[in-house]
Structure prediction request, 68 residues.
Amino acid sequence: METEIEAKFLDVDLTELRAKLEKIGATLEHPERPMRRKTYDDKLASLRKIGGWVRLRDEGDKTTLSYK
Prediction:
């Protein structure tokens, strides 16, 4: 199984960050695209209690349902 690492950064100045990355020679590998994500659990939060959740993610060109 492939390992997935997801991080979210809040309050980032994207223009400034892109300029810094370009300055050090970084290149854009995948175009930015909006993704919608919704997580699900039952009323008793059974999954959260064991560190899990069910996620439905719409990536624009595909939709995935995952258990984490």
